[in-house]
């Protein structure tokens, strides 16, 4: 099974900050990675797939990059509604795996 | 508008059974692979099972293989997860999710989740 390791697991940031979250895969997965946002008590929401393709309706302050084993999710200017937990997910190998999550909290 | 609504969760004793349902609207589940994903309290997301659009193929996580069965009724536009021999570590919120029509398994729509608690 492919392991996905997210870092950091927790970060504290202020509105307007640039935030970067990293997801490392235990083996190369090309660009087969998605990012989701989950708010407390809610279902996950798809943000990005194929490492860098923004899902329709997602604000352009979210961006993704990377290939192979290292990927990043960047929020260019953190907004109040962005405080949530973010998960990465590998797309092609079963069983599908998710990263452990990064919780973004208000500083 | 695409909607997925889960139901059927609850409290069950170890060794018991439960059937979850996921009623979909706004699209036909006969055209999409459908999945179940679970999340234990305070933990991350774990993929559980999937079923092909026409229902001809199913796959399971090792942790539930032989105990859980995914199925769907395309006429009712409803996905199911039959769970048996339940254990405490099956306690989680269970989400149904639609696989997007893009390369790879990407979940573009999710239900709100249904809580399953396995405890005596």
What would your notes on this structure say?
Chain A is mainly beta and 107 residues long. The radius of gyration of chain A is 13 Å and the shape is globular. In chain A, β5 and β6 (53-54) form a beta hairpin. Chain A has strands at residues 4-7, 10-13, 19-25, 33-38, 45-49, 53-54, 62-67, 70-75, 85-90, 102-106. The model of chain A has no long low-confidence stretch (mean pLDDT 97). In chain B, strands 2, 4, 5, 6, 9, 10 and 11 form a 7-stranded mixed sheet that branches. A 4-stranded antiparallel sheet of chain B has the order 1-3-8-7, with no helix packed on it.
List keywords for this structure.
heterodimer; A: 107 residues; mainly beta; six-stranded mixed β-sheet; four-stranded antiparallel β-sheet; 0% helix; globular; B: 120 residues; seven-stranded mixed β-sheet; 11 strands
Summarize the model shown.
The complex is a heterodimer of chains A (107) and B (120). In chain A, 0% of the residues lie in helices and 48% in strands. Chain A has 107 residues and is mainly beta.
**Radius of gyration of chain A, taken over Cα atoms and rounded to an integer in Å:** 13 Å
Spatial separation of the terminal alpha carbons of chain A: 36 Å
Structural class of chain A: mainly beta
What overall geometry of chain B do the principal axes of the alpha carbons give? Answer: globular
User: How is the biggest beta sheet of chain B arranged?
Assistant: 7 strands, mixed
The N- to C-terminal Cα distance of chain B equals 40 Å
Quaternary state of the chains? heterodimer
Major pleated sheet of chain A: 6 strands, mixed
Radius of gyration of chain B: 13 Å
Residues in helices of chain A, as a percent range: under 10%
Helix content of chain B: under 10%
Strand content of chain B: over 45%
Unreliable segments of 5+ consecutive residues of chain A: none
Q: Which structural class fits the helix and strand makeup of chain B?
A: mainly beta
User: What count of helical segments of chain A does DSSP give?
Assistant: 0
Low-confidence stretches of chain B: none
Number of DSSP strand runs of chain A: 10
């Amino acid at each position: 099974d492919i392991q996905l390791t997210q870092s950091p697991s927790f970060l504290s940031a202020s509105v307007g900050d640039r935030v970067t979250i990293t997801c490392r895969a235990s083996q190369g997965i090309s660009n087969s990675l998605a990012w989701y946002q989950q708010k407390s008590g809610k279902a996950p929401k798809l943000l990005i797939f194929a490492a860098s393709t923004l899902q329709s309706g997602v604000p352009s302050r979210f961006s993704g990059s990377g290939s192979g084993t290292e990927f990043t999710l960047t929020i260019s200017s953190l907004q109040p509604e962005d405080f949530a937990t973010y998960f990465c997910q590998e797309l092609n190998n079963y069983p599908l795996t998710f990263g452990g999550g990064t919780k973004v909290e208000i500083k | 508008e695409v909607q997925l609504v889960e139901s059927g969760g609850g409290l069950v004793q170890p060794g018991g059974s439960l059937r979850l349902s996921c009623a979909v609207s706004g699209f036909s589940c006969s055209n999409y692979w459908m999945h179940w994903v679970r999340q234990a309290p305070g933990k991350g997301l774990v993929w559980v099972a999937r079923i092909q659009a026409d229902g001809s193929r199913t796959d399971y996580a090792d942790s539930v293989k032989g105990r859980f069965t995914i199925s769907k009724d395309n006429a009712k536009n409803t996905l199911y997860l039959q769970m048996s021999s339940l254990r405490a570590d099956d306690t989680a919120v269970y989400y149904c999710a639609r696989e997007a029509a893009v390369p790879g398994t990407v979940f573009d729509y999710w239900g709100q989740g249904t809580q399953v608690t396995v405890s005596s």
